[in-house]
UniProtKB/TrEMBL annotation:
It holds the Pfam family ASRT. InterPro entries: ASRT, TM1070-like_sf. It comes from Luteimonas cucumeris. It comes from the Bacteria. Gene3D superfamilies: TM1070-like. This is Sensory rhodopsin transducer.
């Protein structure tokens, strides 16, 4: 049974990777995460474009999510075509050739009392 759900374009209007962390890496390193669910029967070819306040966008960053799988991608780990700068506000658009579901999660460990936030990304189609 095909469980294809979601949309092919998502947006996360808010992003920020702190320049430092209080906890041990990688578990408690401050980060932003894009959680992607591909519940369908085909590989999802995903492109992420990063937008900034004062410069041209970065990307696309390319990745795949296998059928009937999830992938938790830390924005901190994106390197190609360039790392996402720390301590810089940004937004992201996530596009896929098949429907996916996207959730945004942030761990801010700049102080001993960690802050964890999660929300659904905005579905654009």
């Amino acid at each position: 049974m095909d469980m294809t759900i979601g949309c092919t374009r998502w947006a996360i209007a808010e992003g920020y990777i702190p320049g430092w962390s209080h906890g041990p890496a990688p578990e408690l390193e401050s980060h932003e995460t894009c959680c992607i669910l591909n519940a369908g029967e085909r590989v999802a070819n995903v492109r992420i474009t990063i937008y900034f306040e004062d410069r041209e966008p970065a990307g696309p960053y390319r990745l795949t999510v296998q059928p009937r799988r999830t992938r938790h991608l830390r924005f901190n780990e994106l390197e190609d075509p360039e790392p996402i700068p720390r301590e810089t506000p940004y937004a992201s658009v996530i596009e896929s050739d098949v429907p996916i579901v996207v959730q945004h999660t942030r761990l801010d460990s700049r102080q001993a009392e960690n802050a964890l936030m999660t929300t659904m990304a905005y579905a654009c189609d």
